[in-house]
Amino acid sequence: MKRRFLDFLDASSQPWELIPSKSEGEEVIEGQLKQGARVVKVVRGMPRFVPDDNYAGNFSFQWQKFKRTQSEGELREQSRKAFWDKTGFDRERDIAGKLVLDVGCGQGRFADFALEAGAEVVGVDLSFAVESAYSNMKHYSKAHIAQANVFELPFKKECFDTIYSLGVLHHTPDCKAAFEKLIPLLKPGGRIAIWVYGAYGWNYGDIRDTFDFWRSRTVNWDTDRLMRWCRAVLPLYHLQKNPTVWKTIHNSLPGFLFHKIPLVSASENAEQRLLDTFDFYGPKYQSLHTYPEVFGWFKNAGLTDIHVLEFPVCVIGTKPA
Ligand SMILES: C[S@@+](CC[C@H](N)C(=O)[O-])C[C@H]1O[C@@H](n2cnc3c(N)ncnc32)[C@H](O)[C@@H]1O
């Protein structure tokens, strides 16, 4: 961590003190952050505001195993497009020269684009995904990564010009409450954008029954078993991607049996297929939301200039100045 990180911390009750025990240039690699009696360890370059990864163990595994999958080649370009499409941010207004909070940064694929566009970025994640984010972002002088829980973020009020959280809040025990925790951290005039799973389309109806049937089992498996199962069911992709074959199977099996066949990622990239399938069956929490619901959260939080974006369910709003 960089000494600059202290500027972002809430010191309204007591000041923070950084006590390095190992540094490399500007970077504190090991040490302690102290606020009165509270001690936050700095381990492998990052402050750890949580004792462990709590319910996010599968994310710890996933983002260390697939550390670069979505940050290279064609998938990097898809991530780039997803960042701008799912936030609706304007490069100049929201990112260039701004202090930006990435909530649930994972391996840092989106922080990468904000940094590239000239932001200073603080990325937080509950899981050990932060190990990958730190290593992926370490060439940026304006990147700060910390292991922290969205429900107990250590930052001062009205600290950030821009906040985004993409594909994260629906993986917490309370999506709306997690969203509400972010509003006080946003500066007046700043914008916040979130993407949460939509209660529409691919994730709905009979398909959802299939996911729920399997997820009620898979979320209780250990990571190794889940990964073995994902690898075992992944060849179903070849049947599911072919509408004629899949329809024939559908028509020839009784419904209760057909809807027990696990659905796997339709990604054309084999590594992403494995990642996405694991990402779907692994998270302990996974809630679905509608546009009116999420729009209501923004409105109740006092945000204005609220826009729903095309990709369900992405919403952006502004904190009144
Ligand atoms: C599907 S991943 C998305 C990661 C990243 N935003 C991306 O799209 O590549 C969800 C992330 O949310 C994180 N997460 C879940 N609950 C969290 C919490 N309470 N506080 C902070 N991060 C959390 C997980 O550890 C995981 O890395």
Fold and architecture overview:
This protein is an alpha/beta fold and 321 residues long. The protein folds into 3 domains: 1-48, no CATH class; 51-198 and 290-318, Rossmann fold; 205-281, no CATH class. 37% of the residues lie in helices and 21% in strands. The chain contains 13 helices and 11 strands. The chain has a 7-stranded mixed β-sheet, with helices on both faces. Strands 1-2-3-4 form a 4-stranded antiparallel β-sheet. A hairpin with a 2-residue loop joins strand 2 and strand 3. Helix 8 (223-233) crosses helix 12. The structure holds S-adenosylmethionine.
Number of spatially distinct domains: 3
Beta-strand residue fraction: 15-25%
Main structural class: alpha/beta
The count of strands amounts to 11
Distance between the termini: 31 Å
User: What general form does the structure show?
Assistant: globular
Low-confidence stretches: none
**H-E order:** EEEEHHHEHEHEEHEHHHHHHHEE
Major sheet details: 7 strands, mixed
The strand order across the widest sheet is: 7-6-5-8-9-11-10
Mean pLDDT, rounded to whole units? 96
Within CATH, the superfamily of the largest domain carries the name Vaccinia Virus protein VP39
CATH architecture of the largest domain: 3-Layer(aba) Sandwich
Fraction of residues in helices?
25-40%
> Which class of the largest domain in CATH terms?
Alpha Beta
List ligands, each type once: S-adenosylmethionine
Number of H/I helices:
13
Radius of gyration over C-alpha positions, nearest whole angstrom: 20 Å
CATH topology name of the largest domain, in short, is Rossmann fold
